Amino acid sequence: MMSKTVSPNGSNFKRxxxxxxxxxxxxxxxxxxxxxxxxxxxxxxxxxxxxxxxTLSAKTAQFRRHNIxxxxxxxxxxDGDFDFNKLTFIKxxxxxxxxxxxxxxxxxxxxxxFEKTSLSTSKFVDxxxxxxxxxxxxxxxxxxxxxxxxxxxxxxxIQAAYTNNxxxxxxxxxxxxxxxxxRLEGTKAKVARAVLTSIQxxxxxxxxxxxxxxYITQHLIAKIADKNIFELKPIxxxxxxxxxxxxxHCDLS
Length: 253
Fold this sequence. Notes:
This protein is of the alpha/beta class.
């Protein structure tokens, strides 16, 4: 199932240093990741491996299309340019995965589940996410790139965005759960706008209007947060929850 090539997990800065990411786990950052050979037929569940585009491309060079179905990726890192074979992932699960700086072109994800997974430094060009489910997703308004890409449920995608709210961890970086939440709302608003722009010419009406809903909702929440950040007032969010903003330091983009 695995090649002999070993990649040090310590090279993954997000797992080691980026405390706001869902994949943050410094205690495991020095453990090695073995390169996956993409034998998903015999091994439909893989854990703690490096999934390189170059390896998959060489394995599937003779095919015009390649489907990967019902595979569970757990604590995997994706690297390289996945711009070949019209890749399609069907009913796959991505848990605690980092898409790192990978670039995806004309790839399709259908009925997949993403949980505690970071997309914050990845690029998606002319891709599709159809009927996927999302939970605790790492995003970035600065480093994540989405263009010509359709997400069928953009509101669910934006609402699944994650930041670390563990006060014990955050105190080590001179920040707080309330401030992390404040910064996240702003990030979600910016990403919601990028997603809406991406799907307005590439999605159906349902996806487009769901994107409008995501953007307007997040834009309003972010504006409320901006207004209250210096007044240190509790913010009443649309879901009924409240938070108090109290710290003014964070590295979250």
